Amino acid sequence: MAMGMMENLGSVSTLWSALVSVLLFWPVVNNHVPAGLRQWLSTMVDKLTSYLSPYLHVTISEYGHQRFRRSDFFLAVEAYLSHACARRARKLRADLGKDARTVQITVDDHQEVTDSFRGATIWWYPSKKPPRTNVISFYPRDDDARFYRLVFHRRHRDLVLDAYLPHVLAEGRAVTIRNRQRRLFTNNAPGASTSYYSRKSVWSHVPFEHPATFDTLAMEPADKDAILDDLTAFRDSKDYYAKVGKAWKRGYLLHGPPGTGKSTMIAAMANFLDYDVYDLELTAVKTNTDLRKLYIETTGKSIIVIEDIDCSVDLTAKRSNDKKKKKSSDEDDDDKPKLPTEQEKDEASKVTLSGLLNFIDGLWSACGGERIIIFTTNHKEKLDPALIRRGRMDVHIEMSYCRFEAFKVLAKNYLGVEQHEMFVEIRRLLEEIDMSPADVAENLMPKASKGKKRDPDACLAGLIEALNKAKVEAAEAAKAKEEEEAAAAKAKEEEEAAKAKAAKEKEKDDEAAGTKHEELFVLDDRRDHICQDRARSGSPSL
């Protein structure tokens, strides 16, 4: 048995000696052997090395099969190593990522990083592909593409492929989400110029830095708590949505007068959920197909917003009919040259109500998950009922005028005041007067007057003055409206009286005309009788 072991060791040492010899003489072979033979020898050396080595290799390329977009897996590995393994590396690279909040520390190229997972030791090797020489490329990313090489023992194959790599992907995505700078997107208009690398993108973005939160949102506390509970339940209900067979999305309709905080509510939602915001401008979308493309290009953990939906495009049948009537009435003017603005209207968005409904809850809406769709409007009654029914707009939130509880939030935010003797008067006035939170906040701003900022007393006094002024204006407007209605009613009565008088005079004239006609008829009849009598007596006729 000992002799057998010695023979095996001898054969292994012989193979290693041969391999070392090949590696030593490989530069000479590379320079003097033809390309075909050199490739065959290289393949054989790789096979021999893989046969003798107990370690397996996995390569994760930066771009993979997508030439213009970095691999999601590569980015996840980069984030995972920077978070979990960077402290064990000797050479690091610092960079401010495109969408990062802080400086990102990553492992530098050609540095070995060791990781452990369930008792298995794993080695990572960040590397960079050497540039090709004497090649002119229109795709510069191909020349400096980077990759990660993962090395592990063959006995851990199933553990690494089935458990470790999914673990790296999940942890890397979590780190990316925690470190990323959230973004505010807007859709590109057709034909708009974009950069070389983003020319295929249908969205452009800037960092989302709106400071609004639910703590600073002027709203009734009970309504605010209900919205927070609903958002939290949605965020944590991925498995529930899958269980009931629904796409993981939710719709919110924000409606109310201007200045009541609809846009601020959207920003507070995004900050609470840590979501990106996609501001969809429907007038820049040409067709329903383009609308679907925009939806597909959105990511999870995002809010898709269409503001002033009633003013964006013609969506109701009533408006379509009005458009057709206008078109038919303008057929006689076809020979007249159109102004550029009219031509632009002819080329306007052709998004239909059906296309928008499919965008909200059709088959395409199930592409991806964890999305919130928000519509805003100042006139809820103008929207088609099919557009805002439950299942499409699941939650209807009325953004109303400022009341006392909302005012207290604004007073705390703007003035740092939670209690004040003027609050009693302000509360009474806010119950009588409709004033938007935006107008209340404007009156609470500590504006500078003659080089000196107003103190809270002056700001609150100014708000009371504004409320009293609004009260007087409202009373005057109501009085003017009553007078206008009274004048309209009086004018209507006078018009009806004039019509009645005209009808009575006409009736009188008709009676007079009838009487005169009867008198003439009697005279004619009498003349006929006289003529007949004279004819019988032989006298000459009249």
Automatic annotation (TrEMBL):
Record region (Disordered): 320-347, 478-542
Domain of life: Eukaryota
A GO molecular-function annotation: ATP hydrolysis activity
Extent of Basic and acidic residues compositional bias: 335-347, 490-536
Necessary cofactors: Mg(2+)
Keywords in alphabetical order: ATP-binding, Magnesium, Nucleotide-binding
Classification via SUPFAM superfamilies: P-loop containing nucleoside triphosphate hydrolases
Domain AAA+ ATPase: 248-403
PROSITE patterns linked to this entry: AAA (PS00674)
UniProt-listed GO biological process terms: response to stress
Catalytic activity annotation: ATP + H2O = ADP + phosphate + H(+)
Family: Belongs to the AAA ATPase family. BCS1 subfamily.
Protein name as it appears in the record: AAA+ ATPase domain-containing protein
Species name: Oryza nivara
